[in-house]
């Protein structure tokens, strides 16, 4: 499932996270003809990154927003936190869903997602990215700018594929793992949960859960 321009036109979105990734998602949402109506962040030193969009801090701020706006249930939302923070994305996404916020996958109009691919709730496919035939992506994944997820890959919940990374066919990536910018994962490799593949790495064999790999594993 992916959402294009006609299905998000005029929607209001809230974003949890107010830094750089929020700017990226706000741009994507604007491209689709929708708008961001509120930002949330757990950092009490956070600064609103979007002009004219109010910023609320923490769950108390969320309650304040509900009381002031009256939007609440029925509003659409995304978690704007990138990097190896899959657990945070999943926790915050669950919090939003438990409060009636609608969470759906979102695809940039200049990305390609094959009609036979499946995207979980809150998954984000950014500009120039590709998700090929038969791939399955879980909840709260990020396929960042110009990243490629080839045919029949399996991405568990909370995975981040960083800009320019390439997953060749039939790669399996475990929950909350991160595949670094510009890295290449060869076909039929398994990357364990919570593992990190460093930027520019070439992965030629399976990566255990929790491992950090750099360069070219021997």
Strand-residue fraction?
25-35%
> Architecture of the domain at 5-98, CATH level 2?
3-Layer(aba) Sandwich
H/E element order: HEHEEHEHEEEEEEEEEEEEEEEEEE
Question: Average pLDDT across residues?
Answer: 93
Q: What is the count of β-strands?
A: 22
What's the CATH first level of the domain at 5-98?
A: Alpha Beta
Topology:
Blueprint: H1 5-8, E1 12-16, H2 20-31, E2 35-41, E3 55-57, H3 58-69, E4 76-79, H4 86-98, E5 106-107, E6 112-113, E7 118-119, E8 124-125, E9 130-131, E10 136-137, E11 142-143, E12 148-149, E13 154-155, E14 160-161, E15 166-167, E16 172-173, E17 178-179, E18 184-185, E19 190-191, E20 196-197, E21 202-203, E22 212-213
Parallel strand pairs: 1-2, 1-4, 2-3, 5-8, 6-9, 7-10, 8-11, 9-12, 10-13, 11-14, 12-15, 13-16, 14-17, 15-18, 16-19, 17-20, 18-21, 20-22
Walkthrough of the structure:
The chain has 218 residues and is an alpha/beta fold. The protein has a domain at 5-98: 3-Layer(aba) Sandwich (Rossmann fold). 19% of the residues lie in helices and 25% in strands. It has 4 helices and 22 strands. It has a 7-stranded parallel β-sheet, with no helix packed on it. A 6-stranded parallel β-sheet has the order 6-9-12-15-18-21, with no helix packed on it. α2 (20-31) links the parallel β1 (12-16) and β2 (35-41). The protein is globular. The termini are far apart. The model has no long low-confidence stretch (mean pLDDT 93).
């Amino acid at each position: 499932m992916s959402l294009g321009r006609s299905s998000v036109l005029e929607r209001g979105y809230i974003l949890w996270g107010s830094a750089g990734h929020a700017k990226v998602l706000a741009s994507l949402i604007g491209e689709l003809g929708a708008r961001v109506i509120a930002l949330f962040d757990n950092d009490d030193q956070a600064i609103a990154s979007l002009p004219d969009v109010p910023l609320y801090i923490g769950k108390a701020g969320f309650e304040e927003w509900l009381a002031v706006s009256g939007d609440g249930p029925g509003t659409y939302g995304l978690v704007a936190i990138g990097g190896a923070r899959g657990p945070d994305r999943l926790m915050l996404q669950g919090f939003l869903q438990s409060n009636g916020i609608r969470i759906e996958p979102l695809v940039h109009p200049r990305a390609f997602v094959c009609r036979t691919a499946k995207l979980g709730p809150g998954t984000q496919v950014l500009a120039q990215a590709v998700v090929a035939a038969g791939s399955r992506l879980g909840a709260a994944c990020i396929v960042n700018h110009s990243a490629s997820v080839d045919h029949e890959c399996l991405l568990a919940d909370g995975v981040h594929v960083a800009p320019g990374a390439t997953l060749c066919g039939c790669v399996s990536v475990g929950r909350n793992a991160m595949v670094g910018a510009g890295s290449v994962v060869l076909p039929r490799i398994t990357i364990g949960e919570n593992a990190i593949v460093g930027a520019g790495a070439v992965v030629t064999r399976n990566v255990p859960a929790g491992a950090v790999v750099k360069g070219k594993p021997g």
